Amino acid sequence: MERIFEIIETAIGFSRSVQIRIINTLIILLVLWSVKFVIRRIIYRQTEDVKTRFVWIKTLTYIVVVLGLIMVGSVWFRGFKELGTYLGLLSAGIAIALKDPLTSIAGWLFIIFRRSFSVGDRIQIGDKAGDVIDIRIFQFILLEIGNWVDADQSTGRVIYIPNGQIFTLPLANYSKGFQYIWDEIKVLITFESDWKKAKEIMLNIAKKHSEHLSKSAERRVKEASKKYMIFYKNLTPTVYTAVKDSGVQLAIRYLCEPKNRRGTQQAIWEETLDSFDREKDLEFAYPTTRFFNNPPEILK
Description:
- The chain is of the alpha+beta class.
- The protein is about 50% helix and about 20% strand.
């Protein structure tokens, strides 16, 4: 064994102590990798729930990385003086050269401890929106929604966003706090239509598809009010009336779950179309131009 150490020292220039440290480091990494591999297999066998499995594996990864840093650090830095000197020499250069990565690490710590969002939440940061599918040390990953898809549904693209952007861009979380969103569907009918009947029909439709959420929303509002200044007096669906250039506008305002928005819209629209089709005195309006032709007036 001594002969091997001498050959390596002669060929590469590594002293015996450095070679031993390298061997110990490789052993530590191999042991940690083996432990992680075994535990991963156990997790996959014990649970089939994707979210639970993801959380366990992600937590395992963090634990293994921290243990690895501590154990490898103990191999290479025997004393606090040596470690302090080394870090002191590198800190200034690292702070300048790795500004963006360090900002991303700070953003990762902020996300983990402040719980701005977590895996499974639907968020929008800047002009990007999607469902969070992973949170890493330097970036978090979204499954994009919207963009060329004219609805809150997935485009199929995966977006990688640096964690540091959480400090510079506005963040909207669909899933935290109140956990519901208000949506509106606007229907325009002609001035000649019976708008009161139309309003009553639309209100009944809105209640059918969203009133069941009101009680649950009340509980969520009470829970959210403990942490945020959130309060609503009325959580039941309603229909607002307004006069526009081409007719009377009736706007349904209702609660829905963020990920069911498009499906709820479709159900309300389809029932509205069917209901209006059965009524002879209800007609949809659209932008039109009317001309007045009075020959006697023209001759004058």
